[in-house]
Design brief:
This is DUF397 domain-containing protein. The protein has 67 residues and is an alpha+beta fold. The chain has 1 helix and 4 strands, in the order ββββα.
């Protein structure tokens, strides 16, 4: 999938800083990228996986980062 021409958007909580991630949707996929490095690539997920990521991030599941 080519997300280069998609409408990338960032959270309204980010304000005017560039320290955030951006997301774009195309069909059944969601892409996430670093707003500071938009040419650096994107993580592409299915919409269900993206929704789960958002839920887990909102729950601050730091236990998922442990080895």
């Amino acid at each position: 999938m080519d997300f280069t021409s998609e409408n990338w958007r960032k959270s309204s909580y980010s304000g005017t800083t560039s320290d955030c991630v951006e997301v774009a949707f195309e069909g059944s996929a969601a892409a996430v990228r670093d707003s500071k490095d938009p040419a650096g690539g994107a993580l592409v997920l299915g919409r269900a996986a993206f929704a789960a990521l958002v839920v887990q991030a909102g729950a601050q599941r730091s236990d998922l980062l442990r080895e």
